[in-house]
Amino acid sequence: MTGSPDPLSSKTLVMKFGGTSVGTPAAMAQVVAIVRAEKARWRNVVIVTSALSGITDLLLKMVTDVAVSETIFREDAAELLRRHKEIALAVIPDADLRNQVILQIGELVDRVVSLCTAVAVLGEATPRVLDAIASTGERMCVPLLAAALRCHDVQAEGVDATRLIRSDDHFTDAHPDMEISYHQICETLTPLLMRGTIPVITGFIAATEQGTVTTLGRGGSDYSAALIGAALPADDVWIYTDVDGVMTADPRLVRDAFTVPVCSYREVTELAYYGARVLHPKTIRPVIEAGIGLRVCNTFNPSHPGTRLVAELEQQRGVIKAITTISSLQLVTVEGRGMLGVPGVAARAFETVARLGTSVPLITQSSSEQSICFAVPTKSTQRVLKSLAEAFAHEIADRDIDRVWATDEVGIVTVVGAGMKSTPGVSGRVFSALGAAGVNVIAIAQGSSEVSISLVVEAGDIRAALQALHTLIVRSEDLTV
Ligand code: ADP
Ligand code: ASP
Ligand code: MG
After folding, report:
1. What's the CA gap between 434 and 424, in Å, rounded?
2. Residue 173 CA: which ligand is closest?
3. Which pLDDT does position 8 carry in this prediction?
4. Alpha-carbon span 371 to 364, nearest angstrom
5. How far is ligand 3, taken at its centre, from the CA of residue 218, in Å?
6. In sequence order, which ranges of 304-400 are alpha helices (DSSP H)?
7. Residue 425 CA to chain centroid, in angstroms?
8. pLDDT for position 419
């Protein structure tokens, strides 16, 4: 299988390239080659690109560096320009076009410098300014890729996603307005596609009604591609990254991880939610709703079929699809023998945490209702404890709640697979494998969809738990894909 459909039936393909796929001269050249090949197979091709790898992090670092050291800040700005120039020199042979692109990127760098300097003067970086700065990465990459394609006989034109995706003003994690966005996407892209031009679009970014730039959350370019694919609608959305699709575990953490050839939307949503960065969790919904195809594949190994995402798996080959981890968490417990009689403790606890904007990836409650326990990121623990102590001050004074406390640092290890619910004994085998590896399970939660089991383990045990469970699926033919 090459992953390419029959040429005669191929209509519209959205290709999204992640940061590593465009992060070096060699990678960018590879992207140009891939686009040329697919252009020959599809009637319409649309490209969505991330910023070069590391650039969004660098931009956000500049916001803090500007206050720390003028020298470091200047070095950051020089690095921004250098990374893009290096690629321009390698992939845009036409000197005039190249100089034009470098000039454009230089102007964007100058703007970032001004914005960061303004932040230093004001002494405060609002989420709105952070988005103005973070959005620059994609805006620098697009002219580079569009020019590289034009120099290689591909008709391409850069499109800023602020013209396409309308969002609310929840800066740094904006929520798109589907109706307006879908309309804008079709209206803007259709004329380009009719002329045979490939739109090269900035991932990650959107704009409010007033035209202010927003971002869709870190890793949000996958989501941009899904929204654009759903709006057109495309036949397929292909997410190009630096590994062979969705794998049984993060290949950076588990050496013998292997590709999962087919994965259901529910499984991949759970995987993404529980820490597998390979696909942004919001990517799935627009694609399901539009009923279009989704594939994750490797820029550096394009003939590998990667992973096909499907609505439902009819024949469930294998039981456990993948194991994911989230680290740097702590478990917060609200406990007390009098809690049983206090109405709405859970609701009030979660409301308090939500008001802080803290995400809660896992919740467990003891059956006696004498404690509620949930995971929060370590960086938020102290704030959460303080707010809970304030929210329950009366109950604590009355001794209905005895304690609000946090464990040492923990991690969540999640086993994902839709086949688990119909296969007895899987959790038993999971616990035996962990026991044999000497891993102590602190808490358990089963996803409501029954597609996953999440286990809380001590921070020091995360690697051992991941490896033990991966070895279990590698060695058990009945559990693996
Ligand atoms: P991109 O820049 O292409 O969006 P990301 O870094 O966001 O790429 O996501 C790809 C990375 O996700 C891989 O390099 C890999 O380390 C990580 N990853 C984590 N879990 C998984 C998994 N189960 N399968 C594949 N990749 C995974
Ligand atoms: N460049 C953005 C980020 O680093 C978006 C993305 O890569 O998807 O978060
Ligand atoms: Mg990503």
Report:
1. 18
2. 2
3. 45
4. 9
5. 8
6. 345-355, 381-391, 393-397
7. 32
8. 85
